Amino acid sequence: MHIGLVGLGKMGGNMRTRLRAAGIEVTGYAPDPSTTDVATLADMVAALPAPRIVWVMVPSGEITRQNVTELGELLEPGDMVIEGGNSRFTDDRVHAAMLAEKGIAYLDCGVSGGVWGITEGYGLMVGGAPEDVERAMPVFDALRPEGAREEGFSHAGPVGGGHYAKMVHNGIEYAIMQAFAEGYELLSATDAVTDVPAIFEGWRRGTVVRSWLLDLMVTALKEDPRLEKVSGYAEDSGEGRWTVMEGIANAVPTPTIAASLYARFVSRQEDSPAMKAIAALRNQFGGHSVRSTTVGPA
């Protein structure tokens, strides 16, 4: 099998390596001349045997829309596009409809595994028609972890289902990470515990909180026991927001995921306007002291 791969960053580049190791020929395209196999997207399409399969692995949003639209002009009826970025599931339906008019199949695939996927395999959640999923299974089998097919792979449903599943997966991930983070802060704040990294290490076996995220926490603490080299500023890539929005749309309470998302927002505020308002109110109704930001005369 020979496929095209658009996007050769941290995820896409490692996926190309894993696919090639499994015997799948890959022609990759990226704007970076140091990583790309061909000069243009058109050159990549021309290098593929028909019917073609092209995997798009670029950041969600406009860059994904641009690539899918351009592929719609370059590919032919019978070809297939697999969109593996963290796109919103509603975008998939638009892309699928646009490509269907040209006779091009479309699958959306939520991909989890990060930089470790190259050796550990990737968790794949796919949306699309069953016959299209089956056609692309050699690619999915090469990327997912070794073992039974259901280990690391799921056909989530119709187009959009793969990215919807990945969205919820990432919402859960937000909440788990927040719980570990709060536990770390509490352990670090007390005199009752003198070796916080040892606690996390001990949790890796025989406890109900053991997980890959816990393993990664242990690795981080080994490299920097007090996390002094890391800023307390946390970005969000969008899936947490979308998960909370879907909870609202479907009247499903997601308070834990919502709280973890808001915690990331708080991390970006050096001096929270909301906390300023609370301090001012406490001063007004109770005469509680307020820390001034002004510096008086020396």
From TrEMBL:
E.C. code: 1.1.1.343
SMART domains xrefs: 6PGD
Keyword Glycoprotein annotated: no
Keywords linked to the UniProt accession: Gluconate utilization, Oxidoreductase
Matching PROSITE patterns: 6PGD (PS00461)
Pfam families noted in UniProt: 6PGD, NAD_binding_2
Gene Ontology molecular function terms on file: oxidoreductase activity
EC class name: oxidoreductase
Coiled coil: none
All copies of domain 6-phosphogluconate dehydrogenase C-terminal, residue ranges: 162-296
Family membership: Belongs to the 6-phosphogluconate dehydrogenase family.
The protein, known as: Phosphogluconate dehydrogenase (NAD(+)-dependent, decarboxylating)
